[in-house]
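Quick entry, no commentary yet.
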Amino acid sequence: MMKFLRFLLPITVLFCFFGQAKSQNNPDSSSFEVQRSRVNDLLDARQQKFGAYDTSLTQKTGLFGLFKSKGDMQKSIDILKDIVITDNNIFLETQKLLKIKDFEKDKYQQLATDYDKQVSAYIGTISKLQKENEKLRAQGDKTSGNLPLSNILLYIALLTIAVLGYLLYKFKAQQTASKQQNLG
């Protein structure tokens, strides 16, 4: 039973810490998700703009629809500029996303280090208490080793009291009997 309790206590402590860590809401993770959503939205917008650029390349509004007009080429160039601006925004937002990810990684490493220190401290405390418990058990065993001798002495004392009580009773009974014979 004692061995079971030795293993149960550290496991319980670990579950408490990990359960507490999971139950806490993490604002950094939510900011990471928001930032990731921004990057995904920019990627979707870039894909749509590239589709529009691809379509503008095939459009020919020039002479009888056979040639590209200056307006068609300018429209393609404007869409291409917009794609480049979107790409720059994607790069900036991705850098922010990586910074958030690195920050979270460092934070979780720090939390893991802190939890390791706490668990190590608890394990140290538990082992110290187990040593103290063993020391107290050893002292208890030493005192319980003297217990049979003290029990024997107790039984001898009780027997002596019982014998003395019986003798006193007999003595009083004889005195009472002799007084009644003298009176009677």
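second:
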Amino acid sequence: MMIIRQLYQDSHTEIRIATESEAALHLEAIQASVAEIGAWESWCNDRYQLEDSRKYLIDSEQKRHRGVEFNFCLFDRASGQLIGSVGVNRINQEYKFANIGYWIRTGFTGRSLAPLAVHAAARFAFDELALTRLEIVAMEGNHRSCRVAEKAGAVAEGLHRNRLYYRGKPKNAWVYSLIPDDLSA
């Protein structure tokens, strides 16, 4: 079993595994961001509660131990606030690819935290998991998420029809890819 606790740290930001004891911080970040994140992610809504954060963090730990998903949280080092999340999921070991997803807490966007998180998670996926391709899938109209993918060095591969489901309906989505060479460019 691979043990990794931290992806990145500088004087302002830390990207690491969040524990069940930090569920209240996780919930606070989600509640502060429902309007922005909920526009693109159906799990992010007014009904999200402390027990949901707790279950998510426990589930993340279990999936990490099984090697099927790796979720990390961003923390503001000055305040201790949880300010976002980045994850490597939908891992396909046979074909060496996975999805990378992210969100940044309202009030902390526009600081290049998401591209930083994507880069750190991608480096982890390529170096530690031996993956050769990562996909970022952003619902059509989610210009901020597309911009993050571009700033992280991902290549747009086109608008895919009915690529995502959002609130029970199929939605078109932009698919971006990252390969190891993209990080060194």
